[in-house]
Specification:
The chain is built from 17 helices and no strands. It is mainly alpha-helical. Helix 8 packs across helix 9, helix 10 packs antiparallel against helix 17 and helix 11 packs antiparallel against helix 12.
Length: about 350
């Protein structure tokens, strides 16, 4: 009688498990650091810390163990990323849209679309940066920071060095926003006395890059601002999937991009939408959803760690100062242009309610 053989299990253990274990260890370390009070006050979330630790390890210890770990690191950076984005939908419900109202939806939509368009205009036309880097910086600045950059990477087929440059850019200026927005609230009160703390929270959630940074900045202003900021931010996160679908469709049809007509359809984006719709029905117990969110955090942190491990400082130095200059210009737009969008939208929506 012939023996049963399991060829896939040894292959998985030999070629993928070491890399997955390494990324999981970095993700766990990042999660532990994110819970330290000193780090939490800086607004550095587990995803941001995971890529920072990954870059540190990738440029010191990783080259000596790259051979047995590369396959697992690649799996984390691609497959686990997509699964993590899908499960991220369990953070979103349609009920959250109703809480911020139509004005909040419109503000997020206008801010997202205008920010991405302006990023492309400045980056490609003015600074002459490559399209992939500009698209990634635009996605991260428009939607949800590093997570949006990672989600956009498989759609635009960008190299790890370009992804790392984009992540570093949005993390830098998102962190700067934590220090900038609380003092801006005092300035806004002086020039716009009718502006409520909740309205300023919507401005915060619609313009700051990362979720953790939004929480930190909103908390520094006040609880009412923090609550509305988080809701507005979650609404932006929910727009990630439609954005990826639109970007994928545009890349298929753009005449100046003939080489990208074979781009794969981002099925994980539809999975994200489907999970968010399912989550809106509240069919699962809260404990299950909390556990799923923890798994999603782990998968995304592992993907971040994998990206950091494959990033080299040499590639970042080659990128030059232009990506940072683009990030700075977009940061200024988010404050000035995003503030104008918030004020005008709330003003005209208020007039419409009066009528």
């Amino acid at each position: 009688m012939a023996e049963l053989s399991f060829p896939r299990l040894p292959d998985f253990i030999q070629h993928r498990f070491p890399g997955l274990l390494l990324t999981a260890a970095i993700a766990g370390g990042a999660a532990w650091l994110a819970q330290r009070p000193q780090v939490a006050e800086l607004g550095l979330g587990a995803l941001t810390l995971a890529i920072m630790l990954g870059i540190l390890v990738g440029n010191t210890l990783y080259p000596s163990v790259a051979a047995p770990c590369d396959a697992g690191v690649l799996l984390a950076k691609q497959k686990l990323l997509r699964l993590g984005i899908i499960l991220f939908g369990f953070r979103i419900t349609l009920q959250q849209i109703a809480e911020v109202g139509l004005s909040g939806v419109l503000i997020d939509l206008l801010t997202l679309s205008s920010t991405f368009f302006i990023t492309c205009l400045l980056g490609i036309r003015l600074l002459k940066l490559d399209r992939e880097t500009v698209w990634l910086i635009g996605a991260g600045s428009s939607i949800c920071g590093a997570a949006a950059v990672l989600a956009t990477e498989p759609v635009v087929k960008a190299s790890p060095s370009k992804v790392a440059v984009a992540v570093a850019t949005v993390v830098l200026f998102g962190t700067l926003a934590i220090l900038t927005y609380p003092p801006l609230w005092l300035l806004a009160q002086h020039y716009f006395p009718a502006l409520s703390m909740a309205q300023y929270g919507i401005f915060t959630g619609s313009t700051i890059h990362e979720v953790a940074q939004v929480v930190a900045a909103g908390h520094a202003v006040g609880p009412e601002a923090e609550n509305s900021a988080v809701i507005a931010k979650m609404l932006r996160v929910m727009m990630l999937a439609p954005f990826l679908l639109c970007l994928s469709g545009w890349l298929r049809r753009a005449p100046q991009q003939p080489a990208r007509r074979g781009i794969a359809f981002p099925w994980f984006a539809l999975g994200f939408i489907g999970v968010a719709l399912f989550n809106s029905l509240h069919l699962l117990p809260a404990a299950w959803v909390a556990s799923i969110n923890q798994v999603a955090n782990l998968l995304l942190a592992m993907a971040m760690a994998a990206l950091g491990l494959t990033t080299r400082f040499g590639a970042l130095r080659q990128a030059g100062a232009k990506p940072l200059l683009l990030g700075l210009m977009v940061f200024i737009w988010l404050i000035v242009g995003g503030g104008a969008i918030n004020l005008l939208t709330q003003h005209f929506m208020g007039l419409a309610h009066q009528v």
